[in-house]
Every structure is written in C-alpha cells, then in structure tokens.
Amino acid sequence: MNVNKIVPLSTKRLISSTFGFERPLTPSTRDKSSTLDESNNDSHNDSNNDPNNVSNNEPNNVSNTLEEKLFSHQNQQLQKKITFRIKLWITFSIIIGLWLAVLSSLFIIHLQKTSIKTTQTTETIVGIVTLDCTSDSDCSSAKPYCDTRYSFECSQCTSSSQCTDSTKPVCDIFGTRTCHECLVDRDCSGNLTCDYAETRTCV
Fold first, then answer.
1. pLDDT 10s digits, 30-39
2. Handedness of CA 164, 165, 169, 175 (dihedral sign)
3. Rounded to 5 degrees, what are φ and ψ at 30?
4. Among 203, 147, 201, which Cα is nearest to 175's?
5. Rounded to whole angstroms, how far apart are CA atoms 45 and 50?
6. What are 128-153's pLDDT values in tens digits?
7. Contact 173, 158 (CB under 8 A)
8. What are the strands, taking DSSP E only, across 5-163?
C-alpha cells in the first residue's frame, strides 16, 4: 500500500515537526548552513592566530629561543677566541721587548768594558814607551825628520825624497831610516847589483 497516496502532505509535515524527522534542505537553508560553516572556520582561524593562544604558538617560541641561545653561545665563543689571541699577542710582544732590552743592556756593558780595557792598555803603553818625537821640530839637524808613522823617533829620512846626497838617493824606510845608494838591484845602473847585506852599495 502506498502511504504517500494515503497520508496528506499537511499530515506529513505535522508528523515531521512533531517527531523531529529531518526534512530536506531547501536552497535558502543551504545558504544559511554554508554561512554558518564559514563563520565557524573564521572563528577557528582567529583562535589559531590569536597571540594569547600559548598552546598554538609554543613550538615556534621554543624554536626561536633555541636559535637565540645558539647564536648567543657562538658569539661568546668568538669573543673568547679574539680575547685570547689579543692577550697572547700582547704577552708575546712584552716578552720580545724584555729580551731586546736585556740584550741591549748586555751589549752596552760589553762596549763599556772594552772601552775601559782599551784606555787602560793605551795608558800602559804610553807610560812604558818613551816617545823621541811627535813632529820634526822635536828633532836635531843630524836626524831632522820624525818618524810619526811607526817609531816616533828622529831619523835621517822617512822617504827617499828627503835624501839630498846624489850618491845615496834611497831611504831605508822600514829599516834604519837612513839614506843609501841602493836597496835592490834595480836601484843600480848597468849590470851592477846591490850589496844589500853589507854596504848597500852597487857592485
């Protein structure tokens, strides 16, 4: 038996409203339902974006905190390295400066001691050796020239130019400092040779 044919439409509506049966959605009902869903979604999104919602933002906050701590730790380590290198360089510079100061002091002391020894030696030599002359004016006519290069003694000559005797034109500078006819064979003419051992004359 077909119930739809027997039960009138008004009766169906009454039964549906009385017993809570769902009735099909009309176009207007669908629009209201979609509007309600969108409102619920917006409120949900707002709750997620709410800065006061600690439970949703907590993972991000923890991540940011860890990054900040890591960055701070790296900066501290870098500062420690830079500070250590600066201290090491300063210490090294001070040590080098001290060593240079010590070496300079030792060198100056050595120079002072050497100068004192040289002065004492010079004074001793001057005290022991009696100088015959220091210039030609200290010498007599027999030995008019003062040998200021070696012996500081008055002599007949200190160079061959001072030998005025034509028979004795050569001065024995490194020996007796007197004038002679020859000192070597080339001082003699012709086939003559110099008798340097005895007479220092050409023979």
1. 444 455 455 5
2. negative
3. -60, -45
4. 147
5. 8
6. 556 789 899 999 988 999 998 888 89
7. yes
8. 145-146, 154-155
